[in-house]
Amino acid sequence: GQSYEIRMLDNRKLGELPEINGKLVKSIFRVVFHDRRLQYTEHQQLEGWRWNRPGDRILDIDIPMSVGIIDPRANPTQLNTVEFLWDPSKRTSVFIQVHCISTEFTLRKHGGEKGVPFRVQIDTFRENESGEYTEHLHSASCQIKVFK
């Protein structure tokens, strides 16, 4: 539930991708498993989590703390995903909250487990001619572990 800041920066070189100047881009944040073994069973793992925590989400945006994000959305069926639009020419910071802990996905839950590493993955897209954000611009990720 703690809020963590991720700064969104336009890191294009001068003259690169001039077609997005003055336009919004869409970024999609996902919390996924870092371990390959858990990636194969991600759908079952997330369904099990949903069953144990009805109504809860794995990932949220702390909207009051965030700066420069437009139209933030959280799809009710994708508990580990949030998305928003932003202007690369303006200061943008998104504060995310992860509502699950790394030990919720370990086999033995007696306390003192190592906990599984997660990965925050950010994919950014630009608009195509039809007005849909489908043209991939950039991906980034980092490993996290969440403990109480």
Order of helices and strands: EEHHEEEEEE
Mean pLDDT: 90
Contiguous runs where pLDDT drops below 50 for at least 5 residues: none
Shape category: elongated
Helicity range: 10-25%
Number of structural units classed as domains: 1
- Rg over CA atoms: 17 Å
Number of continuous helical runs: 2
Structural class: mainly beta
Strand content: 35-45%
- How many individual β-strands? 8
How would you sum up the major sheet?
5 strands, antiparallel
Read across the widest sheet, the strand sequence of neighbours is 4-5-2-7-8
Measured distance between first and last alpha carbons: 10 Å
Give structural notes.
It is a single chain. This protein has 148 residues and is mostly beta strands. The protein has one domain (1-7, 22-142). 11% of the residues lie in helices and 39% in strands. The chain is built from two helices and eight strands, in the order E-E-H-H-E-E-E-E-E-E. The strands form two sheets. The chain has a five-stranded antiparallel sheet. A hairpin with a 5-residue loop joins strand 7 (118-127) and strand 8 (133-144). The longest helix is centred in the N-terminal third of the chain and has 11 residues, at 42-52. The chain is elongated. The mean pLDDT is 90.
In short:
This protein is 11% helix and 39% strand.
Give the key terms.
148 residues; RNA polymerase II cis-regulatory region sequence-specific DNA binding; elongated; 3-stranded antiparallel beta sheet; 5-stranded antiparallel beta sheet; TFCP2 factor; single chain; 2 helices; mainly beta
